[in-house]
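Many introductory courses stop at the sequence. We go one step further.
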Amino acid sequence: MKHLLIAALALAMTCSLARAQDAPIQAILQAQSALIIENSRRTIAPAIAAVSGSGLPEAQDVLQAWQGKNLWQRTTDGMFFRAEKSEGKTYQLYDFDTGEIAGSAPASDLEQIKPNSGIRALIGSALVQFQLQDADPKRRLAALTSVQRNPSAEVLEPLRGSIAAEDDPTIRAMKVRAERLLTIAYDSDEAERIKAISEMSGDLGVDVRATLNPLLATRRAIFAGAPPETLNIAETLVPGASVGVMSAYDMLVDADLAPPRVTDAQVRNALIENAKGGKVGGIPIHQLDDPGIRRRAYAALAAAGSVPPDPDAAQIAQALDAHSIVEVYLEPSRKVTDAVSEALETIALTVGVNQTVDLILDGLSLTSIYFLAAIGLAITFGVMGVINMAHGEFIMMGAYTGYVVQQIIPNHTASILVAIPMAFAVTFAAGVVMERLVIRWLYNRPLETLLATFGVSIALQQLAKNIFGTQARPLTSPAWLDGAWVINDVVAISFIRIAIFALAAFFLGVYIFIMRCTRLGLETRAVTQNPRMASSMGINLNKVNMLTFGLGSGIAGVAGVAIGLFAKVTSELGSDYIVQSFMTVVVGGVGNIWGTLAGAAMIGFMQKGIEWFNPSNTLAAQTFMIVFIIIFIQFRPRGIIALKGRAAGD
């Protein structure tokens, strides 16, 4: 009975094996079983190719299971399955051909195939042809990303075949772009490659340049006589012109095409070895201190056959004349390399233009920041003549106001909308208090004003440290200000900078409106031009000065909110901008808002221009900028746009 049961079990297993081996994908796995079990990166490629190239719909499931370490072999019969753990140490087996449950087996009867990272990468490349046409757009996108990261000639045709059926416009555009790049790099049709190069020559993408540049890679080759005409030669190296004579000869030596030159050390060693009777080559040893005499002694030894000869200038010239040294393109097609060179020249020109545009945008961005920081000082210093060293602390106060508002209102958009008027109100009130308590007693006394406001500056910094601590506080921008406006791979500007530019333009309009269209502006201009006459006309000088100083301080607070969105909010925040603010007002022209704008533009563009030449050293850029401004003021002490009339005389 026992023998009968064993025979029946053996017969059942044989029938099961026979049915499985009749199944197409299982037959392929069985044929490649040895390579799969060996699990070596060096030998696994034929097995992967056999599965992926079978054209069977089950091939994708096998490759995905294999890549995910879910390919198992039953040791009793060598069959391959996908397995899921069930109860205890038992696994439920799934047949690849039918997708149905094929029974279960204990862990001891199964061997898990665990491909290493190299094999998984190969399987991933093979899976691309299936995943590019997967029903799930996420899988298609993941496959396309894999193609972009690991391009190869094998995926070009599957990629082309997947474009027509692609219904997602974004993925389709990405596929078309990837197909063009793969065509440039791997297509065997020269005309198609040149067409693709021409189409992509106006593209500024880094991936385009990364595809084109390797096609101009070269290798150095040396030939006896003229090089073969079939080679795609990039450059012929001419000794004495494009390459040094001795460097060219050393290339021949390295290629075993010419005898090596004898070094000074070799000469010295040879002379020591051949010294006899106080002479070497007929020359007394005591005369060998001179390098020329040593060379002459070595030549005598070479003539006697005692040492290898040292090639002279004539021999070197003869050897170089008998050989050609060329740089040969690795790409054999001359038409392709010519098209690539032309495309890269076009791209380089376009990149240069776009870098200029990007530099202009950076300059405008910095201009708006400096102008926004200085517009308040343009009022207090430019209009009122008050040297307010605490101006930076009003900027800091506005930034901390924004931080406090965000602690109360967690919504970042709402908090910023509330913080801007709140910062204006807080710093306006602080400016009014400072003017009433300190500044009003010090008009027309610039030195005392400077010292007093400097003291207020220190006091406000210490107060901020006592309240908020020394650690930087976050002022978070709304989500819609995250990121940047990316025009192309070269030109981009952050949304925060755009918002600051708009805010600066807004306050420029507010300032002009107040000064030109309101009674406060009219009275302020009158007081600026002739205080005594304004007073005699019934204008309250104290009220005008108080409101004007408050207005300048309030705008500084708004600038603090804007600056705090991209800078660290600390008690020293204002110190980073007080110097630039004074330079902006002085260079632009004291008392003129358009001069302040011109000064901000000159300083902003100059700093960005200097940084462009040395981007790793912004401190050097600021130093050169200050030196230039000092020289500029020597020739134009009233600034870019100087006041005219009585105010200029004052």
